[in-house]
Each structure stands twice: as structure tokens, then as C-alpha cells.
Amino acid sequence: MKNMIVGILVLLLVAVAGWVASNGGAYNGGEHGKVIANIGNMANAATQKIKEKDDRQKENDKLNALRDKAGNAGAFKVSRAYKSKCSSCHGVNGSGFQNGKPMMGPKLFGQTSDVIYKKLIEFKSGRKENVVMKGLLISLNEDDLKVFADEIGEFPARAEAAKQ
Length: 164
Hints:
Helix content is about 70%, strand content about 0%. Strands 1-2 form a two-stranded antiparallel ribbon. It is mainly α. It has helices at about 1-20, 30-75, 80-85, 85-90, 115-125, 130-135, 140-155, 155-164; strands at about 95-100, 100. Helix 5 (about 115-125) crosses helix 6 (about 130-135) and helix 5 packs antiparallel against helix 7. It is elongated, with a radius of gyration of 34 Å. It folds into 2 domains: about 30-75; about 75-164, Orthogonal Bundle (Cytochrome Bc1 Complex, Chain D, domain 2), CATH 1.10.760.10. It is built from 8 helices and 2 strands.
């Protein structure tokens, strides 16, 4: 008896599916068709917004590149050692900023060479804890640290000379 009821329900289900398919599918035409069309329009609008955002991002990237180029053009000369060890955290000119955004390291510009030298010694010895600084300074001797400190201490004078 159960098998007969299940068989009749299966046949009824197949018949309903056939009837729906012969009428053009479940969501074609009528109110449902409008809903589907609206969903398509919403997807197109979302795609357009993404494209506009991509275009805006490209423009921002170009603008940032120009700002960086302009900032570097007006920058003063620094040593290769400073560029390789310090500029990635403190900026090319020691300002602690790049492209208008703060960097990982603090501002060095304007500090005297004596203050910088004392801080470098403290980082190297471990009295001031900073893994990055200690790793960069571990292989340098005190003369090398003094050269870095003297160079960084000259930044204001170099900047003034670069303006003229």
C-alpha cells in the first residue's frame, strides 16, 4: 500500500514538473520576471560601482606615485647605508612619513647627532628594546653608529641646502 502511494506521488510530481517546464519555467514572465530583471540590473550597477572604484584606485595610485616622485625630487641626498638600513622605517628624509602616511619608525629629522648616537647605542646593547633595530645594528661597530648619527644630525642642514 505504501509503495502505491509513493508511486502515485512520484507520478504527480513528475506531471507538475512537466507542466511547469512546458509553460516556460518557474520564473519566466509576470512579477517573478520583473524580480529577476531587477536582480540583473542590480548586478550591473554593482559591477559599474566596482569599475568606478577601480578607476578611482588607479587615479589614487598615480597621484601617490607623483607625490612620492615630487617628494623624492625635493629630498636631499642620503648615503646608501641610510637608504638600505633606515629609510624603509624612518623615511628617505627621516621625517617618519611617506606619501603623507606615518611609517613604522619615528621621526629622526631635527634630532642632534649626539641624541641619535645615544639611542643607537641603547638599541644595540638592548637597553631599549626593538627587535628590528637590534637586528640592523648588531653587526655594526660604534664608529658605524657614529657615522649614521652624524648623517642624521645633518638632515636639517641638508634640507635647507636642497631648497636653495
